[in-house]
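Look over both lines:
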Amino acid sequence: MVQDGNLIRNELERLLASDFLRRSPSHLRLLRYLVERRLANDDGALREMSIGIEVFHRNPSTYDPKSDPIVRVNVSRLRERLVKHYAMFEAPPQVRIELPKGRYVPEFVELGARQLAAPRFLVLPFVSESRDDALATLLFESTIGELQAMLQVLVLGSRSARAVADDEPLDSARRVNAQAVLSSRIVRLAEGAGKGESQHVHTMLLSAPYGQMLASKRYSRTAEESDAGFIDRVSRQIREDSLRALADLLPGEYTLPAQRKGFSGVSREAADAFVQSRRASALGTADGHREARRLLESAITAAPDFAMAHAYLAATMGNLSMYEQVTPEEAWRVGSAASRRALEIDPLEPGAYLNLAADKIYYEYDFAAANDLLLQARKLAPRHPGVHMLMGTAASYCGELDDALNHLDAAQEVDPLFPAIRANRGVAYYFCKHFDDANRVFLELLTEYPQRTSTRVSFANSLALSGAYAAARNELNAVIEHDPDDAGARLSLAIVTAREGDKRQAKKIVNSVRGGGEIEKTNPSALAAVYAQLGEPDEALAWLARAAAAHEGGFAECQVDPMLEPLAAADGFRALLAQHGLYWRHG
């Protein structure tokens, strides 16, 4: 952290005079206020209420930050502007002013002191010029997966890459502060009369932000090559060629990791079924995941030693459970067996470790075993955002806020535009009863992604425990208006109603939810939270016991869920937790 006030003030004045701020008076005022208050060590002025009054001239007698997001929205936009601005420097300044996510206190970083150990590398989604969209998606995902095994390069996650893919390649790279960007196309070329077409992948690797061509490659498909074989070979070649072209940017010598089996030795029938399963899963629907399961089981029948198929079957069982197509017990039983079989065949399959760790957390509540598995997954795929995000989730379920935020920071560094990472940050604050921080994170996220109903329900729960019942009710009514059958939103509305004092109406809501769906089978822990808030501890404990017996994922949260606070002193509650090696983390 830079201590030289003159350097910081010089950088502030340079920013205030720059084009990127000069056209935004509100951001100009905001940046000056934040930096000057920080230099004056006036941390009390760097609170949302003070900023709203001093910078945005809100009336002190009527301003309510919970209902007026002007500070959160403008700080978020200023943060994004600063990142883009610094990404475009040819000769960077001596100090960089940063606004860390989740805070209003600026940091002053000597640019050379906080360089990433590895260059940020953006792989854009592959573009198909013909009828090969599914193949393009699979090549894109496989290439990122190969690069995530390398510590020497920080390849950005697929969700961030998709979020910026509509821009020109160099503009996309600037948006995520990447130092290199790979743009790829799949083309078909006529080979002459009677010879049909040939298929090729063309790639361009550019240095960002200046556009210098680092490498241009063409990868051609052989006549006898299956989709799976082509994907496997080309994604590995792209990894090796990209690392070779980026050698001058890499921290030290790079060595290729031990290679997982992939499609090696797999029959064409099994490989084709696997590729079709990925296409089905990409639909993101219950029907798509059911079809993916059928195809993966077909691939395993054709090739019993196909480790990737076993690993993806485990992931698919988790998706089916989330879509309530299978019971948690079936998802756990089939998924865990598939993950273990994948690792027996290929101990270098990172997805199997990740899936098995998720099972240990959500179905077995064994956080120590999950941590060991996640460390193995991180060793094999150190740049996989899902590994870091699940480590953050596990830490938050154990009430370890600092560890959770550190893991989520690592995930967000790799996949900065993936909204689920930010949602998990809000959940981590919520589970540790930092409701103001949780509310801020949820509101910022909903400002950008208003369609995230699960986040809106989490926001409403946090508002309710903050005592902001009217605001919580507004959020839940918005969800229910869009989907009257949303059981989670309706149960949260019952909690709000109970906390407002109308327990009779709250019970009517609960009974309506129980009578109209599968909530008793799919999410008994949610019912336990409602009954805890209704002041019915015996009923709450009965549903919690049922959740544990069914290996329901919500039980994994019961060490920290503040909705269960009314049960904390109950011997039965503590005994139930102890049966599963857990304990109440709030004292």
